[in-house]
Amino acid sequence: MYEENEGKMLKKICKCGKLIPYNLKMCDECKSMMESKRKQNRKYYRKTTYERDNKYNKFYKSTEWKKIRQLAIVRDHALCKDCLNSNIITQYNTVHHIVPIKQDWSKRLDINNLVCLCESCHQRRHVLLNRRG
Ligand SMILES: [Zn+2]
Ligand SMILES: [Zn+2]
Ligand SMILES: [Zn+2]
Question: How far is the CA of 69 from the centre of ligand 2 (A)?
């Protein structure tokens, strides 16, 4: 009885040439090989993006940055500089690097390179930066 059922089961050929049940995509060996390959790719991708952003992420968490950032906030009275130029008083939202740190790493702790901005002014500055560069 059992043998008869077994004989009727549909089979197909895996890409490696092995005979496998029709309802499977591939044999166990090919499946585990593909899964480990996929895992490796994912690990590689995560590592490269992590390494690229690590330097900047670390910087924004550093005490040096927090200190200089605080000085810039005090200097600008925690107000948006761009709004102030148009005689509008707006609470700052972000301390922005005028020359981006990705462009000039040496200016990351230069208070003259820092400016307090509200969210909309900050976004506008970045749009301008992107257009220029
Ligand atoms: Zn296979
Ligand atoms: Zn503003
Ligand atoms: Zn910015």
Answer: 17
Q: What is residue 76's predicted lDDT score, i.e. its pLDDT? A: 98
Rounded Cα distance, 93 and 83, in Å: 12
Instruction: Count how many domains the chain has.
Output: 2
Rounded to two decimals, the pTM is 0.61
Residues 120 and 76 both lie in one domain: yes
Q: How far is the CA of 133 from the centre of ligand 2 (A)?
A: 22
Q: What range defines the domain where residue 115 resides?
A: 63-133
37 CA to middle of ligand 1, Å? 15
- Give pLDDT tens digits for 22-75: 999 999 999 999 999 988 888 777 766 666 678 899 999 999 999 999 999 999
Distance 36 CA to ligand 1 centre (A): 14
